[in-house]
Please model this.
Amino acid sequence: MEFCTNSVQETQQLGRRLGEKLVPGTVIAYTGDLGAGKTAFTQGLAAGLGIDTRVTSPTFTIVNEYEGGRLSLFHFDMYRLGSSDELFDIGWEDYLTRDGVCAVEWSENVDDALDADCVRVDIRRGQNDDQRLIRITGIDL
Model:
């Protein structure tokens, strides 16, 4: 499915719609340019999971954990990882067994470690500064 959003709020609302449909153990693999809106989408995703904590990019921490919602959210940023081996070094398999949702930014850096049935979200800039073109596969909205 392809969507076009025209503001940060619309991107967050689309993320919220997705979050409301997720089940324990879901992995979301994000792709998209730097600054395209992956964290904004994840903020909405967290709201859809019932998490009311402020969601920020885990760029310098690799993973941020958010609990207190219908499901926990484990928000990964793989930008600085060189391979999927490093993903396993930080405990990836443990996160998969915690019955939450794993949202993985820069998933292309660890694609060989992700299951084929994960939800894929590609976010690209549109024709103006606020517009985003978002493709979601692996789940029906």
The longest strand covers residues 119-125. The chain has one domain: 2-137. Helices lie at 8-21, 38-48, 84-89, 92-96. The two ends are 8 Å apart (CA to CA).
